[in-house]
Specification:
Helix content is about 45%, strand content about 10%. The chain has 16 helices and 12 strands. The strands form 4 sheets. A 5-stranded mixed beta sheet has the order 1-2-10-7-3. A 3-stranded antiparallel beta sheet has the order 4-12-11. A two-stranded antiparallel sheet has the order 5-6. A hairpin with a 2-residue loop joins strand 5 and strand 6. Helix 10 crosses helix 12. It starts with 20 loop residues before the first helix and ends with a strand.
Amino acid sequence: MTTESTTDDIVFGPMFVQNPYPSYDVLRTEAPVGRHAVKTLASEVNAWVVTRHEDVRALLADPTLSKDALGLPRIVERHAVDPDGSVGQNPRSMLFSDPPHHTRLRRIVTKAFTMRRVESMRPWIERMADEVVDDIVPGAEFDLVEQIALAFPIYVIGALLGVPVTDFDDLRRWNGVLTSVRSTAAEKREAIGLAYAHLDSVVAAKRQEPADDLVSALIDAEDDGQRLDGGELLSTLFLLMNAGYETTANMISSGALALIQNPGQQSLLRADPGLLPKAVEEFLRYESPLNLATIRYTTGPVQVGDVTIPADEIVFVSLCAANRDPSVFDEPDRLDIGRAKNPHLSFGHGIHYCVGAPLARLEGEALFGRLLRRFPHWELAVPADRLVWRHSLQFRGLESLPVRMS
C-alpha cells in the first residue's frame, strides 16, 4: 500500500464537512493511513490521517506520538502549507504536554475536578436545564444551536469555574474565534490573549476571595506538596473553558437532530427514560463532537498497519471515522440508542482521555431528559438539506438547527 493517499479529491474539501462518512468509508478501505493537506484550527499542514478504529485507539495511547507544546512549533513549521499562517505555540496545558509533565498536571487537576464535584453540581445543572427548556415557546420556530446547545454548556462551565454570568458572552465570542477555520492567525492570537487576560483577573479575584468553584479548588490543589504555577493554572483554565464548552454544545445539537431524523428511536427513548445514558453514548458515537483529535507528532517511526510513519511527522486520528468502523460497530450508520456494544472514542483513550467526560454525560442526560418529557413533538423548521455543518475539520457541529417543539 502506498503511504501517499490518492484520495484527496474526495476528502477534506468544502463539501466534505457536510457528510464526511462516505469519504471515510473509502479511506478506511483504500487508504486507512494516508497523507493529506489538513487545516484544523490554525495552520494548514501536510499530515497523516488515520481512520480505522483499531489504529486510532492504539495511536491515542502510543507514547511515540507526542503532544508537547514546546516541540510542536518546529514540527508545524516544517509541514505547514503556509508557514506564515501559524498561530504559534499552544499553551502547555494537560492537552499539550507529555509525561512526566502531563502526569503531574493531571494528578493535580483531578484532585480538584472530582466526580464528587461534578455530582455536587447535579441539582444546579438540572435547574439550569429547566430554565433553558422553559424559554422554549411551544410551536414557535427557534434555533436550537443558539438558544440551547451553545447557551446551556457555557452556563455550566461558567458556574463550574466561578466566572460571572456577565462574562459569558465574552467566553462564547473568544471560543467562536478560536474554533473557526475562517479566523485568521492574528484573530486567534488576539482571542487567546484576551481570554488569558480575563482568566488572570478571575484567578486574582479568587485568590482574594476563594469560593466553592473549580478555580478556587485548582489554586489550592496539590500533589506531593506541588501546586500549579501561575502559567499552568491559566493554561488549565483555558483548556477547561474551551474543551468543556464546544464539544458538549456539538453533542447536544447533533443528538437533537439525530432524534428528529429517527422518530422511532425518539419514541423509544421517550417511553423508557432509563435508556438516556446509553442514548448519550450513542449520540457521541453517531456524530463525534470532535472529528479529528487534536494534533500529535511522531518522536520516532510508528508502524500503523503496513505503513511506517517516520519521525517528526504530524498525525491526526479521525474519531468520526473510527466511531463508524463496521469492523467494530454493527450497522454503524444507524442510530441505535440501545446499542449494547459501544466502545466509541469520542472522549479519547489513554492518558489524554477527557477529564470532563462525566460532566458532559451529566449535561446530556439532564437536558435531553427534560426536552423529551416536556415536548412530545419535535420537527425541523427547514428542509434537512438546508442544514449546514460548520466548516471545521477539528469539530463536528451544526451552524444552526431551526426546529419547532410542542
